[in-house]
Write a structure and sequence with these properties.
Rossmann fold; Formyl_transf_N_sf; purine biosynthesis; 17 strands; EC 2.1.2.2; alpha/beta; three-stranded antiparallel beta sheet; transit peptide; seven-stranded mixed beta sheet; globular
Length: 301
């Protein structure tokens, strides 16, 4: 039986909980309070362009959110000649998300209006660092292997180098070290991270890589998926910017779930980086970031 979510007015609590009425044929019920980036406001409207058929969620593009107020005006005016943004990417391993972002920057269609000017890593021999060197991207070692080591940078030195390169945004793409306070303060609202679960679930110190997917399966969660959020002084606690749901199937293994989530990460991160490079991130007065639609400046996701 199809599950239909019709146009609904949603009243959210101060904590960000909300209730949506879902119709099952002739019956209806209210969903349990849920956390979602798309539904955090004192009062907003949610419209779904299509139904939820056979348990499948609608695509991200079917969500249209109208929020009461924003800290920046969304009057539809946008500078047609937006300056190309300079990006610094942080990795610890193979760097598959980094590679997708870089490929978007150098593609012939100019899908990402950005330029990766630096690669920062705590593992100078990782696959991401090798890819950067092969593409002429400078590689920096951070943090220092040992406090007194002559190799690597201190937090203050790192901030200085990023400023010298004119970095606009810092993108964490599988970087496993905690970002120092000095960097967070130097680049407020300009550092993004991607996490392989739907935060705030399965996040925090020690939850990374395959550990996340094992925890999701052990919990019985029906959905997982990547989250992109702004970075603060703690692990995985910054404001959520974008999420994408990935269905968990009954006989999933952590490896199988990880592959499907990673495939979605590659798409979502490029979409978000495209938006930040086009200056389409708008902040509501309550501090929640939203992505302005490229096609309709009055629609936010």
């Amino acid at each position: 039986m199809p599950v239909v979510v019709s146009l609904a007015k949603v009243a959210a609590s101060p904590a960000g909980d909300f209730t949506v009425r879902v119709s099952f044929g002739r019956r209806s019920c209210a969903t349990a309070p849920t956390q979602s980036r798309f539904l955090r406001a004192s009062e907003l409207y949610l419209s779904l362009d299509n139904s939820v058929e056979n348990g499948h969620l609608p695509k991200r593009d079917s969500f249209a959110v109208k929020a009461a107020s924003f800290s920046a005006e969304a009057d539809g005016s946008r500078d047609e000649a937006v300056r190309r943004k300079k990006l610094a990417v942080f990795v610890s391993g193979g760097g598959s998300n980094f590679k997708k972002i870089h490929q978007g920057c150098i593609s012939g269609d100019g899908s990402v209006n950005g330029h990766v000017v630096l690669l920062v890593t705590n593992n100078k021999d990782c696959g991401g660092a090798e890819y950067a060197r092969s593409n002429g991207i400078p590689v920096l070692l951070f943090p220092k292997p040992q406090p007194q080591s002559s190799h690597g940078l201190s937090p203050t030195q790192l901030v200085d180098v990023l400023r010298e390169y004119g970095v606009d945004f810092v993108l964490l793409a599988g970087y496993l070290k905690l970002i120092p306070v000095e960097l967070v303060k130097a680049f407020p609202k300009r550092i993004l991270n991607i996490h392989p679960a739907l935060l705030p679930a399965f996040g925090g110190k020690g939850l990374y890589g395959m550990r996340v997917h094992k925890a999701a399966l052990a919990s019985g969660a029906r959905y997982s998926g990547p989250t992109i959020h702004f970075v603060d002084e703690e692990y995985d606690t910054g404001r959520i910017l974008a999420q994408s749901a990935v269905r968990v199937v009954a006989n999933d293994t952590p490896e199988e779930l990880a592959k499907r989530v990673l495939d979605e990460e590659h798409k979502l991160y490029v979409e978000v980086v495209t938006a930040i490079c086009e200056e389409r991130i708008k902040w509501r007065e309550d501090g929640v970031p939203l992505i302005q639609s490229k096609d309709n400046p009055h629609v936010f996701y």
